[in-house]
Design brief:
alpha+beta; Nucleotidyltransferase, domain 5; 2 domains; 9-stranded mixed beta sheet; two-stranded parallel sheet; 12 helices; 13 strands; 35% helix
Length: 398
């Protein structure tokens, strides 16, 4: 079938129906589904898996079309709609499978694996894995499975009690039917390291500054869900909530977050943090006469003032005597955009949150977990229409 979107939908339907049938027949409780995907499905059911490649001019015209710029020629409009299906997250097997299972209310973690990977072969070349790659695969798969079964592979040391971190998620819908609209969501992570996903409202959240901002009411609803869930889980409200985003918080948006705190009549300190990777600063280490020839240290921070810092989350790790980066790493630029907080403590917290990538089993990731999976979560939430607003653990989305 040439239509990528329909092809992906039909293939996903086969897997969804098989899982539903097994659920109905199996008497014992199923804790996790392992879905082994043939290489052909991976090649043919993902965005851009089609015969032609869009030119730069086509992509520019397509972006203008998706941003709301109309076209006069009907044939061109049909062409842009056709091109959209190739860039749509609904044409990705992984995203659509997880989204449709959630819509079917099959709340069981899914672990996807390609057939070549299961055979210890490279999915691109077909070459056999070396022993160290086999060990790496076994470690990452077992850790991810352990997490999806409701356990934590590791926990942070000396965490601050009563603190939760909420990362904002935005994903713009593709296709002519939802032009200009985006899905919003939030990822809340507790001091234990476990996370929960909250789906927010759909709306025209992409502003004139090319950044995403919620309106006041939607911001209030989204944070209210997180606070209520924290209270149900811990039997009390958090003492501090840190909102993490890639964009600066708009005044109206921030007022909505403050409304959620005031409505709960809880003594909660609310702080808004923007986190972006910055290539404006590069550090080079003078290692003459030293045994170590690696670059800067992971965890190195440059405090600019009481509201801004740069943090290197990649680099040389003394304990492992190696570097987590193959290049001169870029730092994260951290800015306290709203509220008041200690910039040193904020920087330490963000470094700690880079240690919670249970899915890839990374000791030191470059991005904090509050933002690391935002694109993936957004793609799953927009893979199908009306996925629902269930408040679900993070493990269902990775």
């Amino acid at each position: 079938m040439k239509n990528l979107k329909q092809r992906t939908y039909n293939v996903v339907t086969l897997f969804v129906n098989a899982i539903k049938d097994a659920q109905e027949k199996e008497e014992a409780k199923i804790d996790i589904w392992y879905v082994v995907v043939p290489k052909r499905v991976w090649l043919q059911c993902r965005p851009k898996s089609y015969d032609k490649t869009l030119t730069r001019k086509q992509l520019e015209n397509l972006k203008a079309f998706n941003d709301g710029q109309g076209v006069l020629i009907q044939e061109l409009e049909l062409e842009y709609q056709l091109m959209n299906q190739f860039l749509d997250s609904s044409s990705d097997f992984h995203n659509q499978l997880k989204a449709r299972l959630l819509k079917e209310r099959i709340f069981i973690p899914i672990q996807l694996m390609l057939e070549p990977t299961l055979e210890f072969k490279d999915k691109y070349t077909g070459w056999n894995f070396k022993d160290e790659m086999k060990a790496h695969l076994a470690w990452t798969q077992s850790s991810s499975t352990y997490y999806k079964l409701g356990r934590l592979p590791w926990k942070l040391n000396a965490v601050r009690k009563g603190v939760c971190y909420v990362g904002l998620v935005f994903k713009q819908f593709q296709g002519a039917g939802n032009q200009g609209f985006s899905c919003s969501a939030a990822q809340m992570f507790l001091d234990s390291g476990d996370g929960t996903i909250f789906r927010g409202n759909v709306g025209p959240w992409l502003g004139e500054d090319d950044q995403y901002h919620l309106d006041r009411e939607s911001a209030k609803e989204l944070l209210a869900k997180a606070l209520a869930t924290y209270r149900d889980y811990r039997k009390e409200y958090p003492k501090e909530v840190f909102l993490h985003g890639r964009a600066s918080f708009a005044e109206n948006e921030w007022a909505g977050f403050e409304d959620a705190v005031k409505e709960e009549d809880a003594n909660i300190k609310l702080t808004g943090i923007t986190i972006r990777e910055s290539g404006k600063i590069k550090l080079f280490r003078d290692v003459q006469g030293e045994d170590c020839h690696y670059g800067n240290l992971r965890g190195l921070a440059l405090i600019i003032d009481e509201r801004e810092s740069f943090l290197w989350t990649r680099g040389f790790i003394s304990r492992l005597n190696t570097s987590s980066s193959l290049e001169i790493p870029n730092p994260l630029r951290i800015h306290i955009n709203k509220g008041e907080a200690d910039i040193i403590q904020v920087t330490k917290d963000i470094l700690a949150l880079t240690k919670l990538n249970y899915n890839a089993c990374l000791y030191g990731d470059g991005i904090p977990v509050t933002l690391r999976f935002s694109d993936l979560v957004g793609s799953i939430l927009t893979a199908i229409d009306n996925i629902g607003s269930e408040i679900l653990p993070f493990k269902f989305y990775i």
